[in-house]
Amino acid sequence: MFEEAQYFAPVAKREDGSVTVELASSHPGFADEVYRERRNAIAALALNYQLGDPVPHAEYTEEEHQVWALVSRELAVKHQRYAIREFLDAGERLGLPKDHIPQLQEVSDRLYPLTGFRYIPAAGLVPLREFYGVLADGYFHSTQYIRHHSVPFYTPEPDIIHEVIGHANTLASDRFAELYRLAGGAARRVESEGALQFVSKVFWFTLEFGVMREASELKAYGAGILSSYGEIEEFRGMDIRPLDLKAMGTTEYDITKYQDVLFEAMSFDQLEDVVGSFWATCDDDSIARIVAEG
Ligand SMILES: [Fe+2]
């Protein structure tokens, strides 16, 4: 078992209908039976979900709401310093609650009138083609659990803080929402697994971990950086490379560590010209040509 390389905890559904989230022994909630029960219950909500239903209500403890309040407050301070303007403006438009964890339905109710995006629950890892594909229809798969309250600034897996503070704030921007839609269209259009991986890696190095020059300062727009209390302080010291499709689509990354290679867009226009145009038109042949370029 490669527990240290685990990203989403595996979810098992037994014949009797019970659902178990298999947390690694290194997970901060591993020894907390009550937390694990809650994780199982939340995973079951997602497994039983049908598209079109309202998102089922997840139960959180008061301690968990306090984790959200603390992390939201601390990240908001860092966003003022490190996030691009487009993200800050979109966050103002969305107006997420700061004192309690929003239900995913509440996130959808705020987001849908702005950019047409809706949140749907995910128990854990969603297959790439499905995760990206439905972005084209304005659906975003989101985990619903929150990290263990003993370590509010750390999570080994993407939790609701990442999904909502990182992604919903970007999805409230018309320009970002269009990029997500285009990524979804690309994932549906490509046929080979290799081409899908390429599309997914470009997403990783942009909408998850992208950085952008803004008024001569390096800022972040990737949801992975903007939802990480530690990583947001480190990205300026990483190996920053120019925005390049071939490099992004073929560079390997380790999901369990801070991303040490990042790609910098010179402007939002450049991000749209290079990455948006790529997703809008790419297919297996065009990706093969990019990979073969010298
Ligand atoms: Fe993400």
Question: How many beta-strand runs?
Answer: 8
Taking strands numbered 1, 2, ... along the chain, how are they ordered across the largest sheet?
A: 6-5-8-7
Mean pLDDT across the residues is 94
N-C termini distance: 38 Å
H/E topology pattern: EEHHHHEHEHHHEEHEHEHH
Give the uncertain stretches in residue-range form: 1-5
Q: What structural class results from the helix and strand content?
A: alpha/beta
Radius of gyration: 18 Å
Largest sheet: 4 strands, mixed
Give the count of helical stretches.
12
What's the layout of helices and strands?
Blueprint: E1 11-13, E2 19-21, H1 33-47, H2 62-82, H3 85-94, H4 104-115, E3 118-121, H5 128-133, E4 139-142, H6 160-171, H7 174-189, H8 193-208, E5 211-214, E6 217-220, H9 223-226, E7 239-242, H10 245-250, E8 261-265, H11 268-281, H12 284-292
Parallel strand pairs: 3-4, 5-8, 7-8
Antiparallel strand pairs: 1-2, 5-6
Helix pairs in contact: 3-6, 7-8, 7-11
Characterise this structure.
This protein is an alpha/beta fold. Helix content is 48%, strand content 11%. It contains 12 helices and 8 strands. The strands form 3 sheets. It has a 4-stranded mixed β-sheet with strand order 6-5-8-7. A two-stranded antiparallel ribbon has the order 1-2. Strands 3-4 form a two-stranded parallel ribbon. Helix 10 (245-250) links the parallel strand 7 (239-242) and strand 8. Helix 7 packs parallel to helix 11 (268-281). The model is unreliable at 1-5 (pLDDT under 50). The structure holds fe (ii) ion. Fe (ii) ion is lined by residues 158, 162, 167, 208, 223-224. Fe (ii) ion binds next to helix 6 and helix 9. Belongs to the biopterin-dependent aromatic amino acid hydroxylase family. Keywords: Iron, Metal-binding, Monooxygenase, Oxidoreductase. Its EC number is 1.14.16.1. This is Phenylalanine 4-monooxygenase. Its cofactor is Fe(2+).
